[in-house]
């Protein structure tokens, strides 16, 4: 009996040691994978109906993929928590806590309903906004786990965890208009203390993680967090041809660049250049936006650009405009090239007169209806805050890098020149 008991005890101890060894290995593996990445990667896809970009982000415990609209100028990540928010790691920081100070909110949130995620008393309130409609609503500042794939720049690596990622639990009414039907929130990439890039750079900064991110938009595109190099199939370093211009940050944390003039076919377009500068009231200038499907131009600039472009294509038959565009053509006799239809190039001349962001046919012309190829620019009227808003269509298959440490914007123009595009990230090979 004693021998059997000793054997049983020895066997139990053996299994305990094995369990501890495995647990230690898993813990070390997780801690190593979460402490070493210098780049992260987030797949995005274009919603066919709204032309907005959606990212499925791992959140909560256990992790779930949650669909978010990507808002380049959004100040934070917000999600609706009113239904089925289940997570063992959800926390709502108390009023006047360090988390609330980091989010720059001093408003104490109260909720009269039963306590649940998004509804607690003596927590911090934070405003969230629908970037399409401009509607705002007060929500609860919260923190929970967020997970994202690491990368060396060419393919996805292991998921890494940010255990106390700050976000806002916002009312579901913000989802009712303008956004894809399946999304549950908005992922803000703007220049603010709790935007997605800021929190990722802060969490992984000790590992040499640069406060930089880059968009490569397409029907199935990618966002890189961290510094280049970045690669697309077939082993093309898409960051190699980057050119740089100063990045201007508005008081609201939005991203602007300086455009000094516009050229079409290497000829100056006559525009009121005072509109191209930001005045003392913060009006004017050139903003970039992922929630603006097509580039929006102030009314007089729109007229000048569309008329000049049409003049340069005077031998091509025009057709009835298709909303929201102002000028459309029948391009059936125009040859197609690697970079789209052979139409006049549009140059946004930047801070240096020798540096331009060139928009080729693949980014300037959109097939709006059968037989109608339209100039992919929209009339913004006379009361636009930014005179030019560079939209998502003009950024597609361009690498656009936001280097926040050096206050500069990197851009490549069309990657189609390199015989690749933003759909070509290698998701099939995970190390």
In short:
By secondary structure, the chain is an alpha+beta fold. It contains six helices and 32 strands.
Would you kindly provide a written description of the structure presented here, covering whatever features stand out?
By secondary structure, the chain is α+β, with helices and mostly antiparallel strands. The chain is built from 6 helices and 32 strands. The chain has helices at residues 2-35, 98-102, 196-204, 299-312, 361-364, 392-395; strands spanning 40-46, 53-59, 64-71, 77-80, 108-109, 123-129, 136-151, 156-170, 185-188, 212-216, 220-225, 231-232, 236-237, 243-246, 248-249, 255-257, 261-264, 267-268, 286-288, 295-297, 318-319, 328-329, 336-337, 340-341, 346-349, 356-359, 365-369, 372-375, 377-379, 388-390, 398-403, 408-414. Strands 1, 2, 3, 4, 5, 6, 7, 8, 9, 10, 11, 14, 31 and 32 form a 14-stranded mixed sheet that branches. A hairpin with an 8-residue loop joins strand 21 (318-319) and strand 22 (328-329).
Number of strands: 32
The radius of gyration is 25 Å
Form type? globular
Q: Assign a percent range to the helix content.
A: 10-25%
Structural class: alpha+beta
Mean pLDDT: 91
Oligomeric state of the chains in view: single chain
Total helices: the number is 6
| Main β-sheet description | 14 strands, mixed
Report how far the terminal alpha carbons are from each other.
52 Å
Low-confidence stretches: 1-34
Strand content: 25-35%
């Amino acid at each position: 009996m004693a021998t059997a008991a000793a054997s049983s005890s020895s066997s139990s101890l053996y299994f305990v040691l094995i369990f501890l060894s495995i647990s230690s290995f898993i813990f070390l593996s997780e801690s190593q994978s979460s402490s070493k990445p210098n780049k992260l990667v987030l797949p995005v896809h274009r919603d066919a109906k709204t032309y907005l970009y959606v990212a499925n982000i791992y959140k909560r415990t256990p992790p779930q993929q949650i669909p978010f609209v990507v808002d380049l100028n959004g100040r934070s990540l917000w999600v609706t928590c009113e239904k089925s928010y289940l997570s063992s790691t959800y926390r709502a920081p108390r009023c006047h806590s360090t988390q609330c100070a980091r989010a720059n909110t001093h408003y104490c949130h109260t909720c009269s309903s039963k306590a649940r995620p998004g509804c607690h008393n003596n927590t911090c309130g934070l405003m969230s906004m629908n970037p399409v409609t401009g509607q705002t609503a007060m929500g609860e500042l919260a923190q929970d786990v967020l997970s994202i794939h690491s990368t060396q720049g060419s393919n996805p690596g292991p998921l890494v965890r940010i255990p106390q990622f700050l976000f806002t639990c916002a009312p579901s009414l913000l989802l009712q208009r303008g956004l894809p039907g399946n999304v549950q929130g908005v992922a803000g990439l703007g220049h603010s203390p709790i935007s997605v890039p800021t929190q990722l750079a802060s969490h992984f900064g000790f590992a040499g993680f640069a406060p930089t991110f880059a968009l490569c938009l397409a029907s199935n595109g990618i966002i890189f967090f961290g510094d280049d190099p970045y690669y697309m199939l077939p082993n093309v370093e898409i960051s190699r041809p980057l050119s740089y211009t100063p990045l201007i940050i508005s008081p609201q944390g939005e991203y602007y660049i300086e455009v000094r003039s516009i050229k079409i076919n290497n000829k100056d377009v006559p525009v009121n250049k005072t509109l191209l500068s930001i005045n003392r009231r913060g009006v004017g200038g050139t903003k970039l936006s992922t929630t603006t499907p097509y580039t929006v131009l102030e009314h007089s600039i729109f007229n000048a650009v569309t008329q000049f472009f049409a003049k340069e294509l005077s031998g091509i038959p025009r057709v009835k405009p298709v909303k929201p565009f102002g000028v459309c053509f029948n391009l059936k006799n125009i040859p197609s090239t690697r970079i789209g239809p052979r139409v006049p190039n549009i140059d946004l001349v930047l801070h240096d007169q020798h540096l331009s962001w060139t928009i080729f046919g693949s980014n300037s012309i959109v097939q709006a209806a059968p037989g109608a190829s339209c100039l992919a620019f929209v009339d913004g009227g006379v009361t636009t805050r930014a005179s030019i808003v560079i939209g998502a269509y003009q950024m597609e298959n361009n690498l656009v890098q936001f280097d926040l440490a050096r206050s500069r914007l990197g851009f490549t123009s069309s990657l189609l020149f390199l015989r690749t595009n933003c759909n070509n990230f290698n998701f099939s090979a995970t190390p």
